[in-house]
Amino acid sequence: MTAKRRGWCQKESGQMIVELAALVPVVVVVSLTIFNLMRFIEVCAVFDRVALDAVVSQGVAPSGEQTEIVAVGTVRSCIEDALSSSRCSVSVSVRDVSTCGRHTRGLTFPVSPLLTDFVCTLTYRPWPSAFVIAGVVYDSPLALTHTRSIVIDRFRPGVVV
């Protein structure tokens, strides 16, 4: 009876190793996907809070010259400093609301001609970008983007639409 058991054990002793070798690459790819997704969600949450604070505090009245270029640069640097991640890049653009074709609550004329729309865009590059383990391909998108738009009156502090 012991001879039969030994023969049975020896016959299928490598099956678990083969199953493990087939399962590990899938587990690694799923783990990296979940890691990058969680990291992107975390960075987006920080970005949403910081972008609003930066636009309200720095976009309305930037230090130095009171121009859109200075305001955009100040807001972008404030957001980048708060994120402090090498995997992220931030871009900020400005549009006048009256020239965007937007209408405020059905009105055809702008309520305030000085309203400015700050569009903050976060670009996140996942880590690693691509690799292959035992035939299982992990190929993340080139970059994930998240956009936050905030409308303010640049010449009246505290007015956020």
Overview of the structural elements:
There is one protein chain. This protein has three helices and five strands, in the order αααβββββ. It is of the alpha+beta class. The N and C termini lie far apart (83 Å). α2 runs antiparallel to α3 (68-83). It has helices at 2-11, 15-59, 68-83; strands at 88-96, 115-124, 130-133, 136-139, 144-153. The protein has a three-stranded antiparallel beta sheet, covered by helices on one side. The chain is rod-shaped and about 80 Å long.
Question: Which percent bin holds the helix content?
Answer: 40-55%
Shape: rod-shaped
Distance between the termini: 83 Å
What is the mean pLDDT?
Answer: 79
Secondary-structure content class: alpha+beta
Give the low-pLDDT segments.
none
**Content of β-strand:** 15-25%
Number of strands: 5
Q: What is the string of helix and strand elements? A: HHHEEEEE
**Major beta sheet summary:** 3 strands, antiparallel
User: What strand line-up does the widest sheet have?
Assistant: 1-2-5
Task: Return Rg in Å.
Answer: 26 Å
For the structure shown, list the relevant keywords:
alpha+beta, about 45% helix, about 160 residues, 3-stranded antiparallel beta sheet, two-stranded antiparallel sheet, 5 strands
